[in-house]
Every structure is written in C-alpha cells, then in structure tokens.
Amino acid sequence: MRAEIEKETDNGFGVTVYDNNEVKHKIGVLFDGEIHGHLQDGYPDKPADRTPEDSELLHQARNYAKYYVSKETEHGPFGPHDTIDRLERVKQAIAELSAADFESYFSDAYKQVIGKHPDIEPPVERPPEVDPTDFILFVIDVYLDSDDHIEAVSDIHLIYYDATKTQLERRNDDPFEDRQPDARLQLTEKFIPSLQVFQKFLMYHLKCQLRDCYLEMGVDPPEEYRVLGRGDHEIAKRYRNDDIPQYDYYHDESATVPGYSLDFGYGFGVLGKAAVTSPDDEDNEFDDVDIRTLFDPTGSFGGGVMDTLMEVFGSESDSDTESSGASSHEEPQSDSK
Fold it and tell me: How far apart (Å, rounded) are the C-alpha atoms in residues 168 and 293?
C-alpha cells in the first residue's frame, strides 16, 4: 500500500492510494476522519458485483487513506492510527503496573480465563445455552487517564453464539458506558499458571491486536508485531474466510505463516510452544501426555494441575516472552478455513 495527499479542500483531503494489486483509489478523507467519496478503476462499482476479496481491498484502501492522513497531517489521530496509538499506550500501562496494582485491576479477568480449572470459580457464569465446550469470549474494556495510567476496567462482558450461529453479546457493568475504551481485551479460556504470566500475556494479546490493525489496512506490521495468536475478534473472522485470500491464519498460534512466529510461552518456554504442535510432529521433543498434563485445565491427567505444575515442570522463566497454545474452541463460522 502507498498513498499521497493530492489536495486539501475546505473540509478534508483528496488522497490517492495504490492498493496491493496496484489499483488506484481516489478517496476523500474529511478532517474528522470520515470517508467522503471513493473512486477506483479496478473493481466493480456495485458492491453486489464484487467478490469478498474485492470488497476487502476497498476496505483496506479506505483504512490506509485514513491512517495516512492522520499520520501525515495535524488532523486526528483517527482511524487505524488512533487505534494503534491507544493500544500501544494501554500495553505500556499494563507493563508498568506493580504486581499489587495488576491484581487489583485484572484478578477477575485472570480467574475467568482459567475458570475451567476445578479449584477456580469464574466471576461470571456461562449463559445456560453455552455448553462447556462451546466458544465464548471474555471482553474487558480498559480506560486510561490523562497521564496514560489505567483509570478503570470494566466488568467482564461475554460474546458467544446461539444454536443458529448468531453472535450474541452480554454486557455487564462498565464505569464509562458512553466513553470509548482505550483498549478492549478479548480473551478465551486458557491455562495460565500465575498472575505474573497473565500480565505478560495481556501485553502479548495487545501485540496481536496491533498486528491486526496493520493487516486490516493491507500493511505488514512492524517486526515486533509479526506474531501469531488471537487479537481482535472481528478481524480474525476475515483470517478464517477462504474467500479473502490476502489474509493468513494469524490468529492461530499453531499456524505456519512466513515471517510470523509464536513468541510467548506462557511461562514454560519451549514446552509452552510445544503445546500447540501436533503430538505426531517428529520435531516435537515432548510427548502428548506431558503437553496435555500441562495445559488441560480440568486436571484430568493427574489431579490439581495448578497445585503440581511448578513441582513437575519447574519454575517459570522470568525471561520468557513467548506464547503457548493452550487450545480453545473456535467460534462457529461457515466459511472457516
């Protein structure tokens, strides 16, 4: 993707964008970031005549035009540039929290994520129509104050699917219902051995969301964000869609994507990484029982996993910045890859 601001009008900018197919787009971006006009000569004019791939390329071009104007002028930040800025600030704010402060803000989120363990009672119950093996997403809104410190976090909201595969949302208490959060954590059930590791995991999760911001405007993210793992739920739907071939399986920790890697080990280094590989993988030095004992949150491979984990596998590595694959069930989607 590349762009150039061709002109400035009384209410915005005329931007030329060349997409990743070298198709030229002329896009109007208003001073508030809204799109006002979009002409191009490479795809059908009627949305109904476009393929999903065509539509996604137009979507990327509009996102990139907003990003470019926000980055290159005094207007904004808005669009992807605003989202990237917010996510980076929240990531830094979480990194700077003391252990006590992190626990005060995120202990409920931690219990929810590891809530399948028999010794843990999750703060928010599953809706009765959601079976224990069904996909469910835990959403926590994070708000920063004027000094970029965490001001508040919401209660845990739920996203799940009904029997017709319709996405539903159940919102709980939020301190600022009418205010845009600076970040929206979107978490699934996983086994994470401690709050200390969970703090690192949230920073990693935000790296995945930052990756998604760049990819959704057709741009390779900076190298530090070329990671595998679940980030933004809505953008991940595009990754699973066979009809949008410009994306890969970035949301999947076990995927093989050139230039991208799994770089967080959930406190267990190479064993954590091994948990996402197939037991039949000849390069996997750990057997299936080792892996499932580590990451099965039900403890069915020998009792209280949380009680015996450190004794069996040793203490977590403070220098570990990698990611494991404690697997979670994917949400239903008819066009899944």
Answer: 33
